[in-house]
Amino acid sequence: MGEPQQTIKVLLVEDNEDDSMLVLRALKHHGFDLQHTIVETEAQYAKALSTAPDIVISDYNLPKFNGLQALKILKNQSPEVPFILVSGSIGEELAAEAMRTGASDYLLKDSSLSRLGPAVERELREAKSRRAKQAAEMRAMLAHQALENSTEGVFITTPDLKVLYVNKAYCEITGHDASLLINNPITGVFDEGYTGDFVHDLWASLASQGSFKKEFNNHRQDGELYRQLTSISAMRDEDGEIFKLIGTITDVTQVRDYEAKLDFLAFHNETSGLPNRRLLEKCFQEKRESTNNPNHVQAVIFFDLDNFKLINDTLGHSVGDELIKEIGERAQDALRNSDIVAHLSGDEFAAIVSVKCREGAMQAANKLMDAFQEPFLSPHNQTHISVSIGVALCPDDADNLEALLQCADQAMYSSKRQGRNTINFYCAEDDQKGSNSLNVLNALHSAIHNDEFKIAYQPVMNLQSGLVESVEALIRWPNAQFGYTSPEIFIPLAEKFGLICQISDWVLEKACLQGVEWRKNQIFDGRIAVNLCARELRLPNIVERITGVLEKTGLPPEALALEITEGTMVSAPDKVGSVLQTFRNMGISIYIDDFGTGYSSLSYLPQLPANVLKIDKSFIEGLYQEEKNVVIATTILQMAQNLGMAVIAEGVETASQMQFLRKKGCSHAQGYYFGEPMLPAAFQDFACQIKSTMDLSDRTDYTA
């Protein structure tokens, strides 16, 4: 008797009850635990096959049915199931035909039933082996397909680095032909020179860690330079000996270029390429630490372009940007190589120069003034620019950069009050007399209490439906004393003097009330996005402040979005992430604003509870000026899609920009192409018109 077997399902095709009992008894005697079904007609047999038997045992002669027919039905329906013919003498020809048709065995009822148990055991074992082999072949096929369709280059080599296999992506990345690589030393994996040190490091790493990783510059077959990340692992046999190496290569050129761009923008202004405030602070500290001469002072020269807004509005932002670049170049040329020129924001610049005395600072300021006397030439016109300059000295006026910039800023405003295009040094008496900054500060206090601010709403369009899906709330200040005051002027002052939270609270409440009114009147029920600054996020009661406004106004949380700059998002990711996750749990959307402008850490991004990225307008404006902007915009879109985030492209001003974004899968956009920021009444008309008439597919200017 054989070893006890697992329970098997037997389908017995037999019309003789005694013969059926003999077959079942023989199987049980062999040690099988049976689940059996007995049938004698073709209809019963066909139905029983649906129960997935492990084996079919069939008589040959049956009323209106025979074993050969049963075999053919089985092979057509379940060819992997073993079939044993058990019958009286049917002759050699029929037996041979049955075996050719696929019968596993043929036994005589009277003389061979003792062989039935071993035959069934053998056939079940072989069927199991066949299934295992088929499964292995299927896994191998799937693995091969996965390798061939992988975006990473995959290679397998012998221990002496002769190629056994490369996939399609490997050939696409390196430019090498697979047929020329097989059985030859691998190329495109190691950097130029195929150095012994590299091979030594490879084997040392494999011996100690079982794997190896290196990133380096490499050349494709056609000579093109690219950045390659290579990972190699060892495959060992039963004795622990390495018998194959398997590795991957990834073209990380675009990723590294993008990271380099982000690293650059972390310390430089996107428009001018000059150091930003962050780098200026670093340079200031280095200069102070490296200057041991007590007779030298550090002069901070703050200069602002006169009437730059008029130039921007008249000639356009592209001309304005080119002008900003040339301003930076002239400023650098006017000063020494050891001096630092920084672009702080908009049309504001600062320089740090080491001088012996006040007169030296005046000479440097005059050089800057002279540098801008010649007109700035553009293809269609020439532009005359003047600057107002303020100077502060360290340590006479202050001993830290932030305070020095404030002092120089006040001195610069004195220059503007004196008719512009002049130079002023900071004077402590200005604090007593009241500077322009203090006047603006006082006006800001009044504006908050007198409800002087207005909110304009800029639509965010769904690029598929063409409908307004959300709006961004933007503050405006039409002041009786100063006229229209740009947010670029009063927002930094509000942040500097601690008023920004009050202003933000006002904007949040007014925007929420407006959203409730629009919803009530069925004008607009999309999200309203409100900007949240870093100082607000650091408030211990920020969650209570915002939930309090929602409760007070009645706006649903899902109708509100909070826009956070990427610098704020990564400044303290754990703390910021916790606060923002609380908002997300409430249903409030989180937007990362101005994405790509220089502070992002890609490692933090997946951890942050944001659901929307806003591509900074600088990349959109430059789509058709520099290829790198196309690469960056495309990379951000792909990255957002991989993270399951929506994307809003800012600053869309042309149909070609919109068409590019739609083609690349961008879901939303805002900009003057769709609509400028509008006061509530104007936006109400705009939203109603869009809602009633817009059909994206019917508008030729929206069609790709």
Would you give an account of this structure?
There is one protein chain. The two termini are 77 Å apart. It is built from 26 helices and 28 strands. The protein has 4 domains: 8-144, Response regulator (Rossmann fold, 3-Layer(aba) Sandwich), CATH 3.40.50.2300; 150-251, PAS domain (Beta-Lactamase, 2-Layer Sandwich), CATH 3.30.450.20; 258-434, Reverse transcriptase/Diguanylate cyclase domain (Alpha-Beta Plaits, 2-Layer Sandwich); 441-697, TIM Barrel (Alpha-Beta Barrel), CATH 3.20.20. The protein has 704 residues and is of the alpha/beta class. Mean pLDDT is 85; it is low at 695-704. Residues 296-428 form the GGDEF domain.
Feature tags:
8-stranded mixed β-barrel; 5-stranded parallel β-sheet; single chain; Beta-Lactamase; Alpha-Beta Plaits; 4 domains; disordered C terminus; Rossmann fold; 704 residues; alpha/beta
Low-confidence stretches: 695-704
Give the DSSP E fraction (strand runs of 2 or more residues). Answer: 15-25%
How many beta-strand segments? 28
Based on CA inertia axes, which overall geometry fits? elongated
Total helical elements: 26
The CATH homology group name of the largest domain: EAL domain
Look at the helices and sheets and give the structural class.
Answer: alpha/beta
Order of strands side by side in the largest beta sheet? 20-21-23-24-25-26-27-28
- Calculate the terminal CA-CA distance, rounded to whole Å: 77 Å
For the sheet with most strands, the description reads: 8 strands, mixed, barrel
The third-level CATH topology of the largest domain is TIM Barrel
Helix content: 40-55%
> In angstroms, what is the radius of gyration?
39 Å
Name of the CATH first level of the largest domain: Alpha Beta
Query: Per CATH, which architecture of the largest domain?
Result: Alpha-Beta Barrel
Count of domains: 4
Task: Round the mean pLDDT to the nearest integer and report it.
Answer: 85
Domain Response regulatory: 9-124
Domain PAC: 212-264
Keywords: Phosphoprotein
GO biological process, one term: phosphorelay signal transduction system
